[in-house]
Amino acid sequence: MARNKNLPLTETTYYILLALTQPRHGYAAIQEIAQLSQDTVHVAAGTMYGAIENLLKLKWIKEVPSNDKRRRVYVITTAGKSILQLETQRLRHLGNLAEDFGY
Known about the structure:
By secondary structure, this protein is mostly helical. It has four helices and three strands, in the order H-E-H-H-E-E-H. It has helices at residues 11-19, 26-36, 45-58, 78-100; strands at 24-25, 61-64, 73-76. Helix 1 (11-19) packs across helix 2 (26-36).
């Protein structure tokens, strides 16, 4: 099977896509990533907003309407979900392979 040219994802991108499986603004996504990672991954605001711009260009996330005019809210798209699923499968395969070798 041919490998997707967009893989592997960076850890930050993976967490952002996970966080945006629910509509969130950037700061809420930063907080969700800290919680999901058990406070081991900290995404700076500049990193988050740069990543958001990139993910919007890739059409992996989209902006959705928000009641708060001061905050832009984003959610993962079908294309983003597909990439997230492929990366999750890739990571699972690596984990299973490591287990086969006793790690």
